[in-house]
Amino acid sequence: MNMATSICRTLKLFHETTWHNLKHVVVPIRTKKRFFIPPPVNVKSKTQAEQMAKARASGVVIPQEYMERAINISCTAGIFDPYIPPEGDARLSSLSKEGLMQRTKQIQQTAASQLAIRKIKEHDSEFSTKEFAVRAQEIFIEAHMALTQFNKEKLHSLVTERCYPEMVRGNRYKTLHWRFIESLEPPRIVHARCPDMISKGNLYGQVTIRMHSRQTLAIYDRFGRLMLGDEEEPRDVLEYLVMERHLVNPYGCWRLHGKIVPAWAPSKGPVIKTVMLPGPLLKPGEEFESLNYEVPKPKPVQWYK
What we know:
The chain contains six helices and four strands. By secondary structure, it is of the alpha+beta class. It has a four-stranded antiparallel beta sheet.
């Protein structure tokens, strides 16, 4: 029926045109036939292996899908053999019984660290255990100042590709105010490892720095409400920083790779959002404390009956 209809249309087109205009006639030609393909039966009951075997038997080549993930060889994907901070660090005295036990464990762990430091010095001639801790603290301060200013280019040069997403995650619409006040104890190296990746000679240096300092931190949301911390209240912070460098790369540099949070550290509390309450208008030179203003209490609200 369809074939007869197409032939009739073609003949009708020939009759309507003259022989002189035959050069400009466009004859519609059927390009391909469309067959009705019935839906497959019992496909859901077949397993993936049976479907693959049936496809190969019918001559259909299914390309193999590889689960690939991009890697970055300029830094490692984690912390190799992380340092385990002793419980009660910066609280126990070295003269107490617990302090002496922790000191003996640290001496036992320094054997592997000395071997790693020796490997690091073979590739980095300027590495010094006395000066490196101070340099690591300077990198830590510069990285956090670049984070508060949202300087991405400088932050990439100070932290590794593994540490960068951990520092900037969740800070898009927030305002950070961070300040380093002073060091309560001089920073020192407590742990060092020299792992390799992919091949045996591809070495990376990881050095753990113990830093006990005083800092201030305040985080505001996009509406200017205080979410965490206080700009005027300094706090004592004990941190274990991990610095890393690709030793084989002659142009590599030491960058911040991550932090080690001890298991005995207290858990962080929930974020409490604050709201500014309306107060009296102050005149020039007038202070709020001198007015003895009483903050009005909110009225009780019945949420449900």
